Amino acid sequence: MANKLGIIDEEALNIYTDGSSFPNKKRAAGVGIWFVWVNDEGNEETEGYAPPGWESATIDEMEIKACAIAVHEATRIFENLSSFKRILIFSDSNYVVNNYFSAINVWPKTKWLKANKMPVANIELWKELKKKVSKCPIRVDIEWVKAHKKNLHNREADKLAKKSASLPLNNPISVSETTRKWSARKTKRGCIQMLGQETCIRIISRKFINKVKTNEYRYEIIDSSDKNFMDIDFIYCKTNFSRNKCFKVLFNTDQSTPYIIEVIEELDPADYKY
Questions:
Q1: Using an 8 Å Cβ cutoff, are 84 and 12 in contact?
Q2: Residue 171, in any domain of the structure
Q3: What is the pLDDT of residues 173-220, one digit of tens each?
Q4: What rounded mean pLDDT belongs to the chain?
Q5: Are 184 and 100 contained in the same domain?
Q6: DSSP letters along 63-101, please?
Q7: Rounded to an integer, what distance in angstroms lies between the CA atom of residue 93 and that of residue 106?
Q8: pTM as predicted
Q9: Domain that includes residue 197, residue range
């Protein structure tokens, strides 16, 4: 069924979800949930939900969290949930839509490790979503919807996500040690190629991943002769580095698993700050 508001499945409980994260507000983040269904009289009904937000979270974290909360709230709000054929979640996050099947059916069997034996990103949030879906009495499907355009249902979810983020009462989704970056560029995962090169980096943040006993670092290139000078990316290393430290390092050659294979020397930040 399609109308001026957007596409819905008349036999399903349709849920439009959205996440928000605002870097200028110390990554205050939130989720928006917009329920749409057709009642016994054939009329469309809607209901919105915007829980208190989080002090800090990425947009990917919020998009997964939105789906988990949507399923949980569906089971709480709708007493006769089994009267619907399924729950159909509409998300504008390609990250969530593209990884949902793996999170429900594949990664639990691989102990949340990818084929290269590195951990899946956002494991705990995917586990939470998996748990909610498993407990749900009806099937849960997820489809992609274009963000904030003509679909007014999606726009309502977006408004609710921003409202949620405006009241960040919950603790950060994940805890990491972080410091202010030097570069004005945005972090872009995978922007720095792994070519086995030596380069100079500065550690911006560190998050320990207990599943594989390694650290995920967000770092910036501080070597002005490097073509990726000032770019910001993520990389793994078992060695514990403190934030705001600078190092000359050797990268591996596996783009799917960026890794520091050797720390050549520690550098003086005063020699590199730009």
A1: yes
A2: no
A3: 876 678 899 999 989 989 999 999 999 999 999 988 877 788 899 999
A4: 91
A5: no
A6: HHHHHHHHHHHHHHH-TTGGGSS-EEEEE--HHHHHHHH
A7: 20
A8: 0.77
A9: 177-271
